[in-house]
Design brief:
122 residues, Immunoglobulin-like, 13% helix
């Protein structure tokens, strides 16, 4: 009987933790005519552990096409200011009025608090 209770509690905890652990943080960033809207939230899965899931879109509000757009994302520990994980995402050319979406995962630790820093690359 004890084993059934322990297993049931473990299953309930794992199911509760398998979804999103926090509310998404929404941000905007711009560099000239290039704009990005993105959001990130903490997630957990048995295979990945704790992570930040980042989704967003880039759009060109200017009158000329932009070539070789790249995004740089850093997962920064808010307590220490150190970078835990980084990703560069190559978007490619973005035409006038065009929008491109992106998504990535940044690896974190379950016992730490993080923020995602964003920059357009060159």
């Amino acid at each position: 009987m004890k084993q059934i209770v322990v297993i049931s509690v473990l299953v309930i905890v794992l199911v509760a933790l398998s979804g999103c652990l926090s509310s998404p943080v929404v941000r905007e960033s711009a560099q000239g005519a290039l704009h990005s809207h993105y959001e990130y939230s903490v997630g957990w899965s048995p295979g990945l552990g704790c992570y930040e899931r980042v989704t967003g879109y880039v759009y060109n509000a200017g009158n000329t096409s932009l070539d070789a757009v790249q995004l740089n994302l850093n997962l920064v520990n808010t307590g220490t200011g150190t970078i835990r994980d980084s990703r560069s995402i190559f978007i490619g050319p973005v035409g006038t009025g065009e929008t491109r979406t992106y998504e990535t995962i940044l690896d974190g630790e379950c016992t730490q608090e993080y923020q995602v820093d964003f920059a357009f690359g060159k």
